[in-house]
Design brief:
339 residues; alpha/beta; Nucleotidyltransferase, domain 5; 6-stranded mixed beta sheet; 5-stranded mixed beta sheet; 11 strands; globular
């Protein structure tokens, strides 16, 4: 089966074609112009998607060396994400599905991330403990099979990726914050400053708002004139903050490993590109003798290959969408079975 995937949930336009599990093309166009605004501007993002999606589709066909008539299934991200951006890919996919008379599947973006680990050569085995860490979401999920996903915990306030961006801005590292914080952390001392790790009533829930506020108060107290922070001091703040995030994530993952029978541990989403987080989960997997499968950096961020793969699994389970499928900006409360 040849599957087309379309992704336009935020600031990456991506088109991918996979055939029987093999990635024939996976093109990603990133909107770097948002850097000067310090964050993604929704209206500008939507316009950029409109400009890029058709040329990327043509290029993806060329790279895959197929004609559009050879596509058997069309899929696109329906949400969560920026509503205007989502509509570009979703409507492009619907129109293509209609014109080719091929089935269409609207894919949950988070499910795309969850199943991105299956794009690796070494496949995960069910049950999977999946940590989803991105700019907008932090979730701990028990993935029992293709369709049965149980939410163990989620963030009660900020997502981990959002905290990275905000802390980076506080110390003048710029946007996007994740890569900058990691870069500075590698030169800093993670034990230089003791930032708090939230201990919540929800056994597997996360909170990063207090950590973010603690960093802000530390900076305001120690460096009332921001320009006087040295590069070494920025590195220590970044490293100490990152260490607290890693502890918060790994503490809950460890508890879940002890309480649930799993075969595979995985971390997915844009923040899964962070070296410290990846290394800590690799250590946990080795300690508890679990398989660890983490997507390559290319598949941690938003990409259409994960959307196409997820669509293929849904199709195998006789789940397809009609052309009335709507975009949704937020993750539905019933997206995953309550624990």
């Amino acid at each position: 089966m040849t599957i087309l995937g379309l992704e336009s949930s935020c600031d990456e336009t991506s088109v991918s074609i996979i055939r029987d599990g093999e990635i024939l093309s996976n093109l990603i166009s990133s909107q770097h112009f948002h850097l000067k605004y310090g964050g993604v501007v929704p209206e500008l993002s939507s316009r950029a998607h409109l400009q890029m999606i058709s040329p990327l589709f043509k290029k993806a066909l060329e790279e895959a060396n197929i004609e559009k008539e050879e596509i058997d299934l069309v899929s696109a991200t329906a949400g969560p994400g920026l509503i205007g951006a989502l509509l570009v890919g979703l409507n492009f996919g619907k129109a293509l599905s209609y014109s080719l008379n091929k089935p269409f599947i609207a894919v949950n973006h988070i499910e795309g991330h969850i199943f991105s680990c299956f794009l690796m050569e070494e496949k995960p085995e069910y049950p999977i403990l999946s940590l989803v860490v991105s700019g907008g979401h932090t979730l701990l999920l028990l993935v029992k099979d293709d369709l049965n996903i149980v939410k163990l915990g989620s963030t009660i306030d900020d997502a981990a990726g959002e905290a990275f961006d905000k802390v980076a801005k506080m110390i003048g590292l710029g946007y996007p914050g994740g890569p900058k914080v990691q870069e500075y952390s590698e030169k800093g001392n993670p034990k230089a400053i003791k930032f708090p790790v939230a201990n919540l009533k929800g056994e597997y829930d996360f909170s990063f708002s207090g950590l973010k506020t603690s960093v802000l108060r530390y900076i305001q107290k120690e460096y009332p004139i921001l320009e006087k922070i040295t590069e070494d001091e920025k590195s220590n703040i970044a490293a100490s903050f990152q260490d607290a995030v890693v502890k918060a994530l790994s503490n809950n993952v460890k508890k879940a490993i002890l309480n649930y029978e799993i075969k595979t541990l995985s971390v997915v989403g844009g923040v899964a590109a962070n070296k410290a987080i990846r290394n800590k989960l690799i250590q946990l997997a080795k300690k508890f003798n679990k398989k660890i499968v983490i997507p390559d950096i290319e598949f941690c961020g938003d990409n259409a290959a994960m959307i196409a793969y997820r669509a293929g699994k849904l199709f195998e389970n006789n789940i397809i969408s009609d052309l009335n499928a709507v975009a949704f900006p937020a993750l539905p409360k019933n997206a995953f079975i309550a624990n």
